[in-house]
Amino acid sequence: MKRIGQPAFRRRKFFINRKLQSRFIAGFTLAVLLGLTANLLVSYFLIDRELNEELYKIHIKIRTTSEIAVPILLKLSAVTIPAILAASAVIGFFLTRRIEMPLLQFKDVIQSRSRGDFSKDLSKNMPGELPAAFNGMSRSLEAVFSSLKKSASILDKESGRLAKPEAARAELKNALEAITEARKSISLEISKFKV
Fold it and tell me: Do 57 and 124 reside in the same domain of the chain?
């Protein structure tokens, strides 16, 4: 049933930390903008310097601004564009690592739970209410698991205790059968002596 006023699709935010996401976007944008601004400033100063030098040589040779600016821009772009890409890659790596580490820890804790090890808990620095909910679920699973272990050990002891009388009963039955056989053979021997 569709509620009035709500969109048909709601975006789920399980592992999205809005502060981290906005910091990532702002940091990435800032790195690119600073790189481009630095590129423009350096281009301006280098072209200005080159033009001033060319003004002194103007009486010897006349060159257009593009003839002067293009080599400078190419050299500058060859340096700044890789620097901008490297800075963006480093920022992206660290932010991705910051997002990935809690997820890897979450995976490790889940794997330890699957082996029955309840000693590890999720740290509180994970986004949202996930650590508190998961740790609460783990504590209740641990309680159920420990009571199940306790019940299994009690059941094992009781089955061992019940198996012992069965063995004793079987031994007594064998002994009784042996006695019965011995009594029959003795009766047979006695009947031979009757006159």
Answer: yes
- Residue 83 in any domain: the answer is yes
Residue 9 lies in a domain: no
Parent domain of 160? 145-186
Are residue 104 and residue 159 in the same domain, yes or no?
Answer: no
User: For 136-175, how does the pLDDT look when each residue is reduced to its tens digit (9 = 90+)?
Assistant: 888 888 888 888 888 878 878 877 776 677 777 777 788 8
Which of 101, 128, 155 terminates a domain? The answer is 128
Q: What angle do CA 102, 107, 112 make, to 5 degrees?
A: 125
* Contact in structure between 77 and 39 (CB atoms under 8 Å): yes
Q: Which residues of 29-58 are buried (b: 16+ CB within 10 A; e: fewer)?
A: eebeeebeeebeeebeebbeebeeebeeee
Provide the residue type at 32 as one letter.
Answer: V
Residue 140 maps to a domain: no
Amino acid 107 reads K
- Amino acid identity for residue 87 in this structure: A
What are the start-end ranges of the H helices in 115-129? Answer: none
Burial degree of 62 (CB within 10 A; 0-12, 13-18, 19+): exposed
Task: Indicate the number of domains in the chain.
Answer: 2
3-state secondary structure of 161: helix
> What pLDDT is attached to residue 7?
58
Three-class SS of residue 124?
Answer: coil
Q: Taking the chain, what is the end-to-end CA distance rounded to the nearest angstrom? A: 104
Statement to judge: residues 49 and 123 lie in one domain? yes
Interatomic CA distance for residues 72 and 83, integer angstroms: 17
